[in-house]
Design brief:
Helices cover about 50% and strands about 10% of the residues. It is mainly α and about 170 residues long. It folds into two domains: about 90 residues, rbstp2171, CATH 3.30.2220; about 45 residues, no CATH class. A three-stranded antiparallel β-sheet has the order 1-2-3. The radius of gyration is 22 Å and the shape is extended.
């Protein structure tokens, strides 16, 4: 078999992009769709969800920059392929349904938590370690540490290395 006819061990761009084009039908359990109803009442229904793309997540992040509570609602709005809902309609969904939809969106987008290993990997990364160190030393919340710019993180880490760190009362941002 020549090198020209051997299958490539590498994925093509088309192979990598194909997953983002899929639409997944998911069945919403009746207990999620109509919470509080006795078992057996109400039928489960289906929706179509598409995985979130990196570009979509970036837009959601920018749009929700001043209000993080918008992120889950925008994720549901952008992922729902059928039925298509307006943002106002998504806001009217009950919280349990939104939470369930988010879990499915994360799963089909490859963002699902796999028993905590993704969180452990993030915490073990250099930036994750820096965040944990700063939060512990200064008593900051994870949100306060996340609001630091990369330059601020570098300054505070340098201060810790030099032993000249402040008392922790300065505030994170």
């Amino acid at each position: 078999m020549s090198a020209l006819t051997a299958p490539s061990p590498f994925l093509s761009a088309q192979d990598l992009l194909a997953g983002a084009l899929l639409v997944h039908e998911v069945e919403i359990p009746a207990a999620v769709l109509h919470p509080g109803q006795p078992e057996g009442e109400g039928a489960a229904r289906r929706v179509r969800l598409r995985p979130l793309k990196v570009a979509t997540l970036a837009l959601i992040s920018r749009a929700a920059q001043d209000d993080a509570s918008l992120v889950p609602l925008l994720m549901v709005k952008e992922s729902l392929a059928e039925p298509v809902l307006s943002f106002e309609q998504v806001r009217q969904l009950h919280a349990g349904l939104v939470q369930w939809l988010l879990a499915e969106i994360n799963r089909i987008s490859g963002l699902a938590d796999d028993g905590g290993s993704a969180a452990r990997a993030a915490a073990a990364s250099p930036i994750g370690e820096a965040h944990v160190l700063l939060a512990r030393h200064y008593g900051w919340t994870p949100q306060q540490v996340a609001e630091l710019s990369p330059g601020q993180v570098a300054v505070y880490l340098a201060a810790l290395r030099e032993g000249g760190a402040g008392t922790g009362t300065e505030g994170a941002a």
